[in-house]
Amino acid sequence: MDLEKLLTDRLAPAFATVAGAPVDPVVRRSQRADFQSDAALALARRLGRPPRAVAAEVLEYAEVADVCSVAEVSGPGFLNLTVADEALAGLVRALAADPRLGVPVTVEPETVVIDYSAPNVAKEMHVGHLRSTVIGDAAARLLEWLGHRVLRANHLGDWGTPFGMLIEHLVDLGEAEAAQELSMGDLDSFYKAARATFDADEAFRERSRRRVVALQGGDPATLRLWRLLVRQSERYFTTVYDRLDVTLTERDFHGESSYNDLLGPVVEDLDRLGLLRESDGASCVFPPDSVGRDGEPLPLIVRKSDGGYGYSATDLAAIRHRTGTLGATRLLYVVGLPQRRHFEMVYAVAAQAGWLFPPARAEHVGFGSILGSDGRMLRSRAGESVKLVGLLEEAIARATALTRKRNPELGEAESAEVGRAVGIGAIKYADLSSDRHKDYVLDWDRMLSLDGNTAPYLQYAYSRIRSIFRRAGVAARPDAAISLAEPAERALAFELVGFGRVVGEVAENLEFHHLAGYLYRLAATFSAYYERCPVLRVDGPVRESRLVLCDLTGRVLQQGLYLLGIRTPERM
Ligand code: ARG
């Protein structure tokens, strides 16, 4: 149990007695004591009594003697709480003996569908897909570790009118040649060439149109060519996922086309429920609260005027499938912020139709853009969107070069391995350590630096701890007595016992920068501790105790970074 919770549980009954009703004690970490509560101030205002008197009365009822060495009223009516060393040491010992590091398996396991990555067939993945992949994968790792059943849904863009043109281009190019180009990851040139011919050549346009009709009609020869395009693209995306070291696999592709058979029934049911309106020839639903800038109601188009179903119909069918067939109660959509409105409308319509109701709920895990050093959307020198693999290769190359320079003793193979872990770690961490609602600037020097809130800093802290144990030649004894005489030891202990709380919060809000910030604080606190509290130069119980603190820090760093999808090399 974390200390905020422990102290809250102890203070709450005392506050309730004084107030005659439940009061949240609002216990926070503080500079003045270890923890502070300011709830007596608001309560005193409500009761019309002097705040210090109210605070003193709360303390009379509070049973905190076994947890706090000092509990006193301070200033205008704060409660200052100093945690007893023995109590803190007891929590550290419990943590050391706990393989889950103070993070219990959930008592309410849910089926969670995470819709993430979702690149488009025969199109290059761009940095937006990078963010979705990195954030979605962290969510999958975290929720799985907490004991939820996580279903990864890679909502691949594998259907729609562009496939007429793409298939015709494939025919013109020849299947072997096209397959080669696509599996090499030349998706952009393939797409652009198709587009260029489409724009320039009327006969090609006509063929493309007929091809779309054949595709939608289920023509076997056309379907075979379409599958070839999808297959080659999936293969390519899988190589990117491997490079990126994410947990997505081939089994997780659930492309838009897999919902095709469900689209007709979705629209029919919306009609039966009286939710459909015709608007400019298209079939639309107008969800209750959605109005545009001009105050006009905004429609969600479920069938276009040409009779085709679009993106929204597919998303509705997917919700119905996820809650109904898969039994999911939490649906996460890791998609850029520009699509927020789309998802709000889709959720509203799904709720109206009875496909999404409590306890099932859908959340848009939105994110901002990645910017270049000029503060504008990241572009290549030629002004095009940056190719994702190029970015990953550059990260690995830079990190490998830095690793060789920093530690020439590592062999060639280990340098390459470390370089990969650091490069990919740096990319992921730069993303996950920024508030996902905001844009962030991709800055190579900063993200690869060994100083500051970066992956290499945390990985280095981990490897340093491992080197302590290599030199010690022994492991920490988890049942060792813990002594927290030094302030630096106490400070580290406080950070360590806070892991569970952060993980619990992030599982709710999926704001991974809070987990990143916590790990950074932990590593910095460890660094200060290690400077002041020698481990290998002392003997006996103090050394045993310090080894436990080192070991715990290493384990928390490793687990925390694992949850962010980042590896922890033993040496670097
Ligand atoms: N393929 C889309 C894109 O590249 C993202 C799909 C997101 N997921 C969804 N269920 N709509 O923008």
From TrEMBL:
Gene Ontology MF terms: arginine-tRNA ligase activity
Protein name: Arginine--tRNA ligase
Subunit structure: Monomer.
Compartment list: Cytoplasm
Keyword annotations: Aminoacyl-tRNA synthetase, ATP-binding, Cytoplasm, Ligase, Nucleotide-binding, Protein biosynthesis
Family, similarity comment: Belongs to the class-I aminoacyl-tRNA synthetase family.
Stored NCBIfam families: argS
Primary location: cytoplasm
Keyword ATP-binding: yes
Coiled-coil residue windows: none
Start and end residues of each DALR anticodon binding domain: 458-572
EC main group: ligase
Domain Arginyl tRNA synthetase N-terminal: 1-83
Record InterPro entries: aa-tRNA-synth_I_CS (IPR001412), Arg-tRNA-ligase (IPR001278), Arg-tRNA-synth_N (IPR005148), Arg-tRNA-synth_N_sf (IPR036695), ArgRS_core (IPR035684), DALR_anticod-bd (IPR008909), Rossmann-like_a/b/a_fold (IPR014729), tRNAsynth_Ia_anticodon-bd (IPR009080)
Catalytic activity: tRNA(Arg) + L-arginine + ATP = L-arginyl-tRNA(Arg) + AMP + diphosphate
Enzyme Commission designation: 6.1.1.19
Top-level taxon of the source organism: Bacteria
SUPFAM superfamilies assigned to the protein according to its UniProt record, in alphabetical order: Anticodon-binding domain of a subclass of class I aminoacyl-tRNA synthetases, Arginyl-tRNA synthetase (ArgRS), N-terminal 'additional' domain, Nucleotidylyl transferase
Extent of motif 'HIGH' region: 119-129
Gene3D superfamilies, per database record: Arginyl tRNA synthetase N-terminal domain, HUPs, Isoleucyl-tRNA Synthetase, Domain 1
Pfam families according to UniProt: Arg_tRNA_synt_N, DALR_1, tRNA-synt_1d
Lineage of producing organism: Bacteria, Bacillati, Actinomycetota, Actinomycetes, Micromonosporales
